[in-house]
Design a protein that fits this description.
It is a single chain. By secondary structure, the protein is an alpha/beta fold. Helix content is about 45%, strand content about 15%. The chain has a five-stranded parallel β-sheet. Helix 1 crosses helix 7 and helix 3 runs parallel beside helix 4.
């Protein structure tokens, strides 16, 4: 990172794009603590996804607000943080940024439906079923103001590209 001002770095993308893997690796390379956005979901959201139902905007509101609180608390304490969060829509990113707009950086993990579907098919330990991937792509509004990295590469190469572009 080029500045010493604390930042909240949101690793975003659809389920299966590698948010947790990349977030953890970026954390180890930068010594910035990592939090998985999934851990901020209330049980009702997890139950809904496990049952194969996509979350709606109302389901996501409290979850996004909790992530914003977490990021805001870190920033106010002078600490940076990295959070994996799908942040699929611009309206979701606005909730995440509320009050810390200048200190939040989005990193968009870009991948094709086919590549991500293949990855999800191999993933065993996650509550998000591969069947919901289509709904995530339908909801996705690619960010205009983000570091965008193609995921068709190794995690190490992806993190190197992110680190080159972090403010």
């Amino acid at each position: 990172m080029k500045t010493t001002q604390p930042k909240a770095i949101i690793i975003m993308g659809v389920s299966g794009s590698g948010k947790t893997t990349i977030g953890e690796l970026l954390s180890s390379k930068t010594n910035i603590p990592f939090a998985d956005g999934d851990s901020f979901h209330p049980q009702e959201n997890i139950d809904k996804m496990v049952a194969g139902h996509p979350l709606n905007d109302q389901d996501r509101l409290g979850w996004l607000q909790e992530i914003n609180k977490f990021c805001t608390k870190n920033i106010k304490q002078g600490k940076s943080c990295i959070v994996a969060c799908s942040a699929l829509k611009q309206s979701y990113r606005a909730i995440l940024q509320n009050g810390i707009e200048e200190q939040m950086v989005f990193v968009y993990l870009l991948g094709t439906f086919e590549l991500i579907q293949e990855r999800l098919g191999k993933r065993k330990s996650h509550f998000m079923p591969a069947s919901l991937l289509k709904s995530q792509f339908e909801a996705l509004q690619p960010p205009k103001d983000a570091i965008t990295v193609d995921i068709d590469n190794t995690p190490t190469a992806i993190v190197e590209k992110i680190m080159e572009q972090l403010p």
